[in-house]
């Protein structure tokens, strides 16, 4: 169920902004409109819905209106036109009283520079939202302490914000937002002010928290790696304030909607985002002991492969059988394949990024098996597929050139990087 | 040129307004006069109620508690010297004059400063008035103030008030405008009402700046008190004026020293309040 629905949202800064909307619909550019009316378009007709429990990342460079967008959701900035439905209620039509209710109980915000009150200690900062909503002292203290514990700040309740490091201050900000148990968390570049190591750590912790809490998170960032890491879905905002693409990280990487998105994602380390499940395939396997040597050899011949995975009846992986061993066994007139099952096979999870598979792929002679959390055999990733995916990342012009073509200017494009491509699909 | 000057007489117009106010708003000024003078005699009475030594010890303890041991020692020696010089009563009446004008200045100045910080239009109007109040030579409004309130301490308080009000307004306005945008947004995003926003977020964050304004107000009030002595406001101002008019170098110097001691005491106390408000609570 969609918890937030945004329909045709516009935010235009400048004198009498509503008159600009017809101009936008006529297809006038941002620069033309600025020149003609003096108005700047921050959000240009955004429409999408955010599902309950998902992490929705809005990603754009500075000036793309992403901070404006998140402030429209709780009306810290008044949108110019459109509809914003939270749980079916239109935020834009609410009076101040109703809007405060929404801010107090449904949406909490985490800020880039933390926005903590410097004269209050940690627990009083965390209590702020509850205090404002008029909760009794004991009750709000209890909830605040719980939230502090959740973000791992216990022991610092009485510290002042100025005594804490950036990462810890943002934990306070997060605890404050979690204290009143909102359905939606709005995070405005929440980790952008932190140094890279702390940032990665906070991202991991957020993922961990989210796995337990299942909040709806709207996360704003200018960092594509962060977006890809945290987002269940990502919306990419263009410089004109228009949403260019909405999709899962893999969709955005594999099928960019337009040139802008494509340029955006071309420098991403794909191997950190593309997971084993994305390039893995369902592969033929045989069930032991129900199937025996003949079945194994037939399966390998039919699919033209040199090895086949063996599972038990509940599809737990037992190992792999190679064609060489199988033929040897057949020559010896034996039927039981137990003796030739090789259990020295590497396994991985569906969500492992292929960067982590690369080392293994170089070592092993067999495909890497994919097992889910219960250990059930899901499929396998071939070494060729991994190497091909890594190869896509590299710059063709910088690829190694065969000696025979060296110095031949007409044929400067070596295709060494594409070697495994046929195997990839 | 001369004709035009006769046509629009700036000074004459001002005088006319003053005369008109004096006649038609008599009751209003009398009311103010009554309130202020009641307040003044109240504080003077209180300050003179305990024996002098008790008062000196009270001030010393206050200095120790709020500021530091050094300030406490200074306070003890300084007020002791004032007592020794026989200026205790004069100092206390100056003190109550300062307290009265500063209180009124803050009661008017801080809310006005808050209002200015919220509405640019208000600030645009108030700002030139503050400039006017601060730069117009004190003697110029000393005279109308005597006309409205007659001689004595009350016009002294009013003149002091005019002179010392601007920093309270300015620094309150500045302090609130300087509250980081994210803190305001954070307060709003958790559902603060405008009142909660002001009292839970803006004023506490701006407190250090506002206290700097209070400190400035007190300092300006003290420097004005001497001038107010010319219209018989009493206290150390009277002593200074006596020293000047009778060429009594000793009297002038002694009362001057007393003012400096009082000024340093008040300055250290309010500054300590300002910085401690930044750290704790």
Helix content of chain B: over 70%
- Name the chain pair whose interface involves the most residues: A-B, 30 and 22 residues
Amount of beta strand of chain A = 15-25%
What CATH calls the topology of chain B is MetI-like fold
Radius of gyration of chain A: 27 Å
> How many distinct helices of chain B?
13
Oligomer: heterodimer
In total, the number of domains of chain B comes to 1
Strand line-up of the largest beta sheet of chain A: 6-7-8-3-9-10
CATH topology of the largest domain in chain A: Rossmann fold
- Low-pLDDT stretches of chain B are none
Order of helices and strands of chain B: HHHHHHHHHHHHH
Helix/strand-derived category of chain B reads mainly alpha
Shape of chain A: globular
- Give the biggest sheet of chain A: 6 strands, mixed
- The stretches of 5 or more residues of chain A where confidence is low (pLDDT under 50) are 411-425
Shape verdict of chain B: flat
Summarize the structure in words.
The complex is a heterodimer of chains A (425) and B (281). With 425 residues, chain A is an alpha/beta fold. Chain A folds into 3 domains: 53-67 and 89-271, P-loop containing nucleotide triphosphate hydrolases (Rossmann fold, 3-Layer(aba) Sandwich); 277-387, CBS-domain; 394-424, no CATH class. Chain A is built from 17 helices and 16 strands. Chain A is globular. Chain A starts with a strand and ends with a helix. Chain B has 281 residues and is an all-alpha fold. Chain B has one domain (26-49, 85-279): MetI-like (MetI-like fold), CATH 1.10.3720.10. Helices cover 87% and strands 0% of the residues of chain B. Chain B contains 13 helices and no strands. In chain B, helix 4 (52-66) runs antiparallel to helix 5 and helix 6 (88-118) packs antiparallel against helix 11 (194-228). The chains are: A alpha/beta (425), B mainly alpha (281). Chains A and B meet through helix 4, strand 6 and helix 5 of A and helix 10 and helix 11 of B.
């Amino acid at each position: 169920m969609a918890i937030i629905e945004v329909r045709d949202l516009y935010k235009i800064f400048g004198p009498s902004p509503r008159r600009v909307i017809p101009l936008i619909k006529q297809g006038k550019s941002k620069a033309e409109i600025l020149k003609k009316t003096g108005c700047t378009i921050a959000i240009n007709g955004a429409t999408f819905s955010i599902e309950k429990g998902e992490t929705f990342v809005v990603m754009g460079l500075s000036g793309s209106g992403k901070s404006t967008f998140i402030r429209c959701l709780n009306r810290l900035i008044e949108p110019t036109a459109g509809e914003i439905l939270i749980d079916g209620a239109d935020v834009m039509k609410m009076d101040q009283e109703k809007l405060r209710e929404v801010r107090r109980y449904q949406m909490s915000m985490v800020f880039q520079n933390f926005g903590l009150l410097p004269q209050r200690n940690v627990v009083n900062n965390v209590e702020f939202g509850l205090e404002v909503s008029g909760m009794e002292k004991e009750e709000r203290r209890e909830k605040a302490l719980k939230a502090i514990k959740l973000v791992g700040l216990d022991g610092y309740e009485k510290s002042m914000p100025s005594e804490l490091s950036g990462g810890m201050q943002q934990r306070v900000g997060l605890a404050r937002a979690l204290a009143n148990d909102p359905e939606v968390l709005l995070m405005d570049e929440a980790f952008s002010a932190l140094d890279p190591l702390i940032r990665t750590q906070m991202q991991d912790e957020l993922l961990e928290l989210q796995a337990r809490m299942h909040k709806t998170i709207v996360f704003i960032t200018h960092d594509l790696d962060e977006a890809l890491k945290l987002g269940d879905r990502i919306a990419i905002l263009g410089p004109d304030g228009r949403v260019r693409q909405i999709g899962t990280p893999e969709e955005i990487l594999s099928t960019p909607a337009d040139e802008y998105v494509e340029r955006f994602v071309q420098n991403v380390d794909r191997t950190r985002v593309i997971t084993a499940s994305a390039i893995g395939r369902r592969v033929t396997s045989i069930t032991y002991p129900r199937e025996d040597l003949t079945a194994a050899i037939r399966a390998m011949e039919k699919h033209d492969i040199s090895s086949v995975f063996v599972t038990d009846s509940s599809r737990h992986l037992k190992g792999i059988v190679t064609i060489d061993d199988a033929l040897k066994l057949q020559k010896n007139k034996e039927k039981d394949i137990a003796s030739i099952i090789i259990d020295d096979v590497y396994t991985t999870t569906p969500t492992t990024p292929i960067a982590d598979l690369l080392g293994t792929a170089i070592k092993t002679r067999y495909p890497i098996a994919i097992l889910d959390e219960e250990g059930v055999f899901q499929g396998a990733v071939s070494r060729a597929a991994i190497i091909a995916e890594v190869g896509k990342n590299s710059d063709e012009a910088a690829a190694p050139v065969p000696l025979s073509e060296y110095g031949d200017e007409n044929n400067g494009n070596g295709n060494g990087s594409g070697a495994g491509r046929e195997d990839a699909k | 040129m001369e004709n035009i000057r006769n046509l629009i007489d700036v000074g004459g117009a001002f005088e006319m307004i003053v005369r008109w106010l004096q006649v038609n708003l008599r009751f209003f000024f009398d009311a103010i006069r009554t309130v202020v003078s009641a307040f003044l005699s109240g504080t003077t009475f209180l300050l003179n109620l305990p024996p002098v030594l008790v008062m000196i010890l009270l001030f010393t303890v206050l200095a120790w508690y709020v500021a530091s041991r050094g300030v406490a020692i200074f306070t003890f020696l300084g007020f002791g010297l004032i007592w020794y010089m026989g200026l205790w009563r004069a100092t206390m009446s100056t003190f109550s004059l300062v307290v009265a004008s500063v209180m009124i200045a803050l009661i008017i100045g801080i809310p006005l400063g808050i209002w200015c910080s919220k509405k640019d239009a208000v600030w645009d109007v108030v700002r030139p008035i503050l400039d006017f109040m601060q730069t117009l030579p004190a003697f110029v409004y000393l005279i109308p103030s005597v006309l409205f309130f007659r001689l004595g301490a009350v016009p002294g308080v009013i003149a002091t008030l005019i002179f010392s009000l601007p920093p309270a307004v300015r620094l309150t306005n500045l302090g609130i405008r300087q509250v980081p945008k994210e803190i305001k947004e954070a307060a709003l995003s958790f559902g603060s009402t405008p009142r909660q926003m002001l009292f839970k977020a803006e004023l506490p964050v701006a407190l250090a700046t506002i206290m700097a304004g209070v400190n400035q107000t007190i300092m300006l009030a003290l420097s004005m008190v001497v001038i107010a002595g010319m219209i018989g406001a009493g206290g150390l101002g009277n002593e200074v004026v006596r020293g000047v008019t009778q060429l009594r170098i000793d009297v002038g110097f002694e009362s001057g020293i007393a003012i400096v001691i009082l000024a340093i005491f008040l300055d250290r106390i309010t500054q300590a309040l300002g910085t401690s408000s930044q750290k704790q609570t």
